[in-house]
Amino acid sequence: LLVANDVFCVLTSSGNYCKFQVVTYGYDITVKYVTYKLNSSYARIGSGYNQPEDIAILANESTAYVTERTGDILKVNLSNANRSASTVVCTGLNTPQQLWVDEVHNNAYVVEYAAAGRLLKVNLANGAKTVIYTGLNNAVGVVVTSDLSYAYVSEQGTSSISRIDLTSGVKTTI
User: Fold this and answer.
1) Which of 18, 43, 120, 125 has the highest Cβ tally under 10 A?
2) pTM for this one?
3) Backbone angle region of 83, left / alpha / beta, with phi > 0 → left and psi within -120 to 50 → alpha
């Protein structure tokens, strides 16, 4: 049953995508739609990475940071995005997963996927690591509030989402 404001996507017979919104539903249905023609495929811009887990692209769209499961965070110039041309920002992390970049202060927040994983703040200029919280259980996701007060972390080991106070390090299960 369709109702007003339902939105759905349709793959057309031409291979395009069409986004539909039901405006009114009844005997005379009214819809709004937009058709999108996608590029035929993606383009590889870099290779040689060792088990990449996440990428964060900066606002300038020419620089990215990549985590590798083997323990590194890399700075990548997207005009030459091969691993061999990247700069290692820091090493020694325990299976780093997602990262969240604070461009204003040149820091990244990253979680480790380990039974006693950590939430760390990494200075992107010099690679210095600050441990914010220890004891995460197979953490995979992290986002930080815009005021840099809290990090929200998803943990596969406990099937939970937690909020961590970035000042006090106090963890609250959401």
Assistant:
1) 120
2) 0.76
3) alpha
